[in-house]
Amino acid sequence: MTISTQQHPREATVVDAAPKQLLIGGTWRPATGERTFDVEDPSTGRALCSVADASPEDGLAALAAAADAQPRWATHPPRERGEILRRAFELIMQRHEDLALLMTLEMGKPLTESRAEVTYAAEFFRWFSEEAVRIGGDYAVAPNGTGRFLVMRQPVGPALLITPWNFPMAMGTRKIGPAIAAGCTSVIKPAHQTPLSMLALAGILQEAGLPDGVLNVVTSHSAGRLMEPMIRDGRARKLSFTGSTAVGRKLIEQSAEQVLKVSLELGGNAPFVVFDDADLDAAVDGAMLAKMRNIGEACTAANRFYVHADVVEEFSRRLAERMSRLRVGRGVTDDVQVGPLIDDTQLGKVTDLVDDAVRLGAEIVTGGSPRDGEGYFYQPTVLTGVPLAARLSREEIFGPVAPITAFTDEQAVIAQANNTEYGLVSYLYTRDVQRALRVAEALESGMVGLNQGIVSNPAAPFGGVKHSGLGREGGKLGIEEFLETKYVAVGGL
Ligand code: NAP
């Protein structure tokens, strides 16, 4: 592990340029009582700036603005809705470098990864700009020949959108894009650790011509206190949440009162299965991607590696060698490959999970502890001989730790892979096409990476089964989450 601590010359400029207030009904304004909270740079633990801390009254004002704008927005021409998204896509790409640096400063991921996320985020706007004009309907003759069925698709209504810190922009555009395209207004609440990327994005949408009130942004340090009154209010008709399963469960309960249409993208515990006939070079490349994208802080991160006993030694050696060469540091320069974890709590959790596995008999091949000095850095780590009883076999690690367990039997490894409450994504490496399809069918997850360490793509349906969530984002299905179906029974024919 090499360490980098350099500064980027434009840091202060991009932080200063980002909005810091609430966006309600098209107006930037402070929170009630001018309350603010600090945004921290996780690579130093020091404050970058402060942003508005919305009260429950501010939240309800944002919801009122969204509800007020809803009828006009629902009838806004789809082509124009699409063109606003397309202009926002272009603006994001023009400001790519500044947005990437801002994201790195508040979230910690290396600049190269922030650039990739900014592009990924923008692509949701491009995709949904194209979907806005493809909201279809249906017309059919009733089976008995009398009467007709007319089926129309309409926006579900004002939406509440809640996003996590690990992909501060893309988790937002994945919801805002289809909401705008479908004709829904919304209130979005980004995570308290990473509000700046969302605030900058809202500014760009305004510049792209989004009418007042169509997107409202509330930042807060007290998410539950802010969101619950909005969820229970009755004016919102939709809740779309990305975050932990524990919070997702609470939100389902709160949404029950007003019977909101709910979509949830929750936690994961992805198995990464390497069979003995796999292309080992590809499997190690895929493992690096599936494990180390976003410092391991991804819902799609490979959490458990199951490698066939005949290749486990070779795979572990190669993976450890690649992991130990990674450059760890402040992500603001191009040479850094691994940034800090998001905060002290996450660093403590990763440390505890590794210590627990080692206590139960796992061996550290590389890494195995936090980095000394400021910031929340954990060394890229490979563990072998990880017992099934270890907590990290069951819990989301959300850090740069690869636990490896050997297997010999296909049925047994499928059972192990499925032995989790989660079901977001699984990874599978084999050159045998029958085995590939057989195992892909048997894995209990919403997505499978087949000989591929990354599945995310704005044009594909992203989402999980079991406790990993409800609904899909992206692809053709993404816009469905923001549409209702109305059936008109046509008589007299
Ligand atoms: P989190 O604690 O659940 O927070 C997610 C969002 O929910 C944040 O904006 C948070 O606000 C807000 N929140 C927290 N408590 C709330 C409450 N009682 N009512 C309303 N909102 C509340 O999750 P996280 O730690 O930020 O994110 C990591 C988790 O997200 C992981 O489990 C990861 O797997 C999951 N994730 C899933 C996907 C997917 O697509 N499936 C994608 C990315 C991440 P505050 O910041 O103010 O707490």
Automatic annotation (TrEMBL):
Positions annotated as active site in the UniProt record: 265
Matches recorded under SUPFAM superfamilies: ALDH-like
Taxonomic superkingdom: Bacteria
Family: Belongs to the aldehyde dehydrogenase family.
Name the UniProt record assigns to this protein: NAD-dependent succinate-semialdehyde dehydrogenase
InterPro entries in the record: Ald_DH/histidinol_DH, Ald_DH_C, Ald_DH_CS_GLU, Ald_DH_N, Aldehyde_DH_dom, Aldehyde_DH_Superfamily
Listed GO MF terms: succinate-semialdehyde dehydrogenase (NAD+) activity
Oxidoreductase found in the keyword field: yes
Biological processes annotated in GO: gamma-aminobutyric acid catabolic process
Chain ranges of the Aldehyde dehydrogenase domain: 28-488
Keywords noted in UniProt: Oxidoreductase
Organism: Saccharopolyspora thermophila
CDD domains per UniProt: ALDH_F5_SSADH_GabD
Keyword Transmembrane helix: no
